[in-house]
Amino acid sequence: MIAEVLVDVPAKAVDRTFDYAVPAAFESIIEMGQRVQVPFGPRFIMGYVLQLKETTEVQGLKAIKGVMDLVPSLTRELLELGKTMQFTTTSPLVSIYHAMLPRALQSKYKKTLVCHDITKLDSDVAGLFNRYQEAPYNDSIIPFLPAIKQYIQQGVIEIRHTIQQRGHKKYITYLALEQPDFPVRGAKQQAIIKYLADYDEPQLKRQVLMATKASHSTIKSLLEKGIVTEIEEETYRQIQHRYDALNKCVTFTAEQQVAYDAIHQNLNQHQTFLLKGVTGSGKTEIYLNIIEDVVTQGKQAIMLVPEISLTPMMVSRFKGRFGEKVALLHSRLSIGEKYDEWRKIRRKEVDVVVGARSAIFAPFEHLGVIIIDEEHTDSYKQDTLPTYHAKDVAMMRAEYYDIPLILGSATPSVDSYFEALEGRYTMLTMEERANQTTLPDVYIEDMRYEFQGGNRSIFSKRLKALIDDRLAKKQQIMLLLNRRGHSTFVMCRNCGEVIMCPNCDISLTYHERNDTLRCHYCGHDEQNPTNCPYCGSPHIRYMGIGTEKVEETVKEMYPEAKVIRMDTDTTTSKNAHEELLYQFEHEGDILIGTQMIAKGLDFPNVTLVGVLAADMSLNLPDYQAVERTFQLLTQVSGRAGRHELEGEVVIQTYNPDHYAILYAKDHDYESFYKTEMKIRQLGGYTPYYNIVQILIRDKDVKRVLKIGTSIVMQCRKELEDDVIVLGPVLPKVARINNYYRAQIIIKHQQSPSIDRVLKELYNTYNETIMMAIDKHPQLL
Ligand code: ADP
Ligand code: ZN
Ligand code: ZN
């Protein structure tokens, strides 16, 4: 038997399979989708079995060395899906399969030095080896490399490559009493026997140790005498939650009932629904009920949320409804925890997965529905290889299983809304909040006017007055500023120089907490200088504000208030999100945060939301920047007054007449959509044109432009005449981490040859220059 194996060679584009012989011992167990170990060049690597066959043309076939799974990691459906995505995303197939699996299943390659005759080594080199004649291949051997090289040539030392799985199963150990009447002398030993004799069943070893205060060596001696035995049982790691499972029983509103019925009646055929419902209209209740229907049919459900660790309340609702039958997959889990959750899915122990982007690859085999909540969110798109969009993958899987795909949002992406208006998606709308509360009043504050009136504070007069009011009433406040750090840039008042990142074309941000300047692009950080590095003047000034500065100001203004800040700097530790939200809900007065706080939060006592600088995201070069601003403002406004108490929102801006801000104030999606569509049409953007971005990077700026130009020429030559190819252009921040970037944009309405040409380009240039092709790009 012959296996076609896709090997795990990440960097180089070995985007094809190699044939290997299947040894007789494996013939009965080998299956498509399994991970295997195969010889490749001088070493062994991991690979995926894509096909089994009886014959091959290849001469001198090598054999598979080991089978790493008994149950294939990849299902047939996922294997096929990967092959389609290889073309639609222009990514190497192996990178796609990696993206489908938890990191725990990916391989670590370890190099070890093995010595065959330690007596032949000089004492320095011999000192590197342990009693098994092995030495780790790491920095410690560097001084001895010349000698080692000679020993290798003489055949005394060998380099051994081993493959290890990144993550492991976790086991718990039980102790079982085998010979209760065996006479022992030690008091501790007797205590253990007595403890175990009190139960009929084996007991947790940890528990026994604690209860008897015995030591491991006591247990060891009992084990050696055969009086007790150890039983190991595989277990799952427990994910800790701050919020309890919650199960509310609601009677649908009329609007909810209509939307629910439409989906419910079409559960067994593929159709895409766009559920457009204002914040708080009860979309989540609909999802829960549809999933319950699907589970009753014996099928499974995938529910994607933007970044699950941000919405512990959502998780508690799912746990409340489906209990242990829910798996969670999000970026805050450890490698081991993700592996456990994935195994629960693969073993059919759960019916529902709630997760971020990569959960779209959950290896269910009888999917009944896929739901994407907040479908407009950027985080559904992966920016690194493979650059897939979870929505596209969801579409393919939903078609395969012939099941509904539900896209939910209060502010659908312009592209999805267009699809729905064109009739390709079924539109379902909900205009009312489920609990009869009204949407909050929104005020726009013109910060130019405030400044002219002598207000130098970061708060407009109205926002300040409303904060005073809420603090007096013991109600809660959320303040959004979409920029972390203390100040956005640091400038010398003497010479006017701005302190820049040495590796990127961008200014450094001051972070007060450890008095450093940091680059938000490459991560470079340096001590905050006391004098200007250019002219030596001590007059350094911090310009622009970030969340740290807002926190500082608020604490000065309201020393009594309990202030909590949430941004990537305060949420690095594992459960920080959940802890901070819990603290805020139970004892906080003011929550300051980046866009992280805009989504999904449902706190009854929040009655004021302030957006400090709405313009921040408006001025970015990407054509979707305006849409994102509108969505962000609408989302964050939706956090205010969700229950009995009425809410108010203040948006501070320097562009009070911008349509994104005006329509967000009126909660007027339709008008926003109409205006935005005119601009998209004029500019030639989605949904009128498909946009493909090709990004190339190199340390040499001339090389980037030269290769960029030949790519553009090749595109113009090979693509249809009506396809527009623009560039290469160096973006405003041209250099990141010392690499120059150039952008090429392709706009097309319907190009039959685009996928083929992109794949050819990738194969041609991938070895020459770093290159990324993206069909859902953020333009630079
Ligand atoms: P969305 O997902 O659209 O933001 P949710 O489903 O989270 O809305 O509902 C908002 C709030 O209203 C939640 O507290 C939810 O429990 C409540 N709710 C939803 N539907 C109903 C209903 N039919 N009757 C009463 N309360 C409801
Ligand atoms: Zn200076
Ligand atoms: Zn940098």
From TrEMBL:
Keyword ATP-binding tagged: yes
Phylogenetic classification of the source organism: Bacteria, Bacillati, Mycoplasmatota, Mollicutes, Candidatus Izemoplasmatales
UniProt xrefs under Pfam families: DEAD (PF00270), Helicase_C (PF00271), PriA_3primeBD (PF17764), PriA_C (PF18074), Zn_ribbon_PriA (PF18319)
Reaction(s) catalysed by this chain's protein: Couples ATP hydrolysis with the unwinding of duplex DNA by translocating in the 3'-5' direction; ATP + H2O = ADP + phosphate + H(+)
Necessary cofactors: Zn(2+)
One record GO biological process: DNA recombination
Subunit composition and interactions: Component of the replication restart primosome.
Purpose of the protein: Initiates the restart of stalled replication forks, which reloads the replicative helicase on sites other than the origin of replication. Recognizes and binds to abandoned replication forks and remodels them to uncover a helicase loading site. Promotes assembly of the primosome at these replication forks.
Superkingdom, taxonomy of origin: Bacteria
Binding positions for Zn(2+) 2 per the UniProt entry: C501, C504, C519, C522
Protein name (record): Replication restart protein PriA
Family that this chain belongs to: Belongs to the helicase family. PriA subfamily.
Gene from which the chain derives: priA
